[in-house]
Amino acid sequence: MPQRSLAPPVRRPGRPSPAPPVILRSPGETLEGSELLDEVAGAMGVMLWRALRSATLWATARPDERAHLFAPEARERWLRDGASVPLHPVLRVPMRVVAALLASPGSASAERVARACMGISEWAAEAGAPRTALAFSQAAATASPGSAPAALAAGLRARETGQEIRAETWLRRAVVLSRARRDRTTQAHASLGLARILARRGEDARATRMYGRTLRLAQRRSLWMVRAQAMQEMAGTAARD
């Protein structure tokens, strides 16, 4: 099955370059979010998978399509099915956001949906479910496609699961979005992540240039830890020559 991607916005004359597309699914992933069910068992895993599917369906739909995405009884069914599922306290607010999304998708806030997905992603990372964390991080970034921090988070989550090609697409998107918004902090972190991927791949010349870019950004924003990491890793890359 071909990899799905989040298409870039249409470029208009006189505007910055659009953010590049990203990889949303692995080649072997037959059902979107199915890897979540391997990490979170039982009824809770099913509820999280349904939340992911609902949020992703809403995020990828055109605004004029969203009002009629879900059946009128979707919220009641969601509440009924979830009533007996024990939830971690951290998940209660995000799940309420999903219930509200099912009830009124036409008026749902992209910021609230993205924040709910990010909350679930952070919980999953703490719970030792990295692929679930990645899935919800991507859902957050898809719901808020102009958010550089969300794209950065998705890239870092992908890298943590060993999916470096997918991670690279998200990190490059984060760089473009953060540059357009002059968000030098996010740009520095995304550049560092890209440099690490290039260095690991053995593309030392490109990695060195990316480390140098990271150093300049970190210096400008007084990100001393990022600067120190970039300097140390760039020296290690140079030592391989």
Question: How would you describe what is shown here?
Answer:
- Helix 2 crosses helix 4 (89-103) and helix 7 runs antiparallel to helix 8.
- Residues 1-5 and 7-11 have low confidence and may be disordered.
- The protein has 241 residues and is an all-alpha fold.
- The longest helix is centred in the first third of the chain and has 19 residues, at 42-60.
- The protein has a two-stranded antiparallel ribbon with strand order 1-2.
- It contains eleven helices and two strands.
Concise summary:
This protein is an all-alpha fold. It has helices spanning 34-39, 42-60, 74-82, 89-103, 110-126, 130-143, 148-160, 164-180, 184-201, 204-221, 224-239, and strands at 5-6, 22-23. It has a two-stranded antiparallel sheet with strand order 1-2.
Largest sheet: 2 strands, antiparallel
Q: Within the largest sheet, what's the order of strands? A: 1-2
What would you call the quaternary organization? Answer: single chain
Count of DSSP H/I helices: 11
Quickly give the structural class: mainly alpha
Mean pLDDT across residues: 90
Write the element-wise H/E pattern from the N-terminal end onward: EEHHHHHHHHHHH
Q: Kindly provide the radius of gyration, computed on alpha-carbon positions and rounded to a whole number of angstroms.
A: 19 Å
Shape: elongated
Instruction: State which percent range the strand residues make up.
Output: under 5%
Helicity range: 55-70%
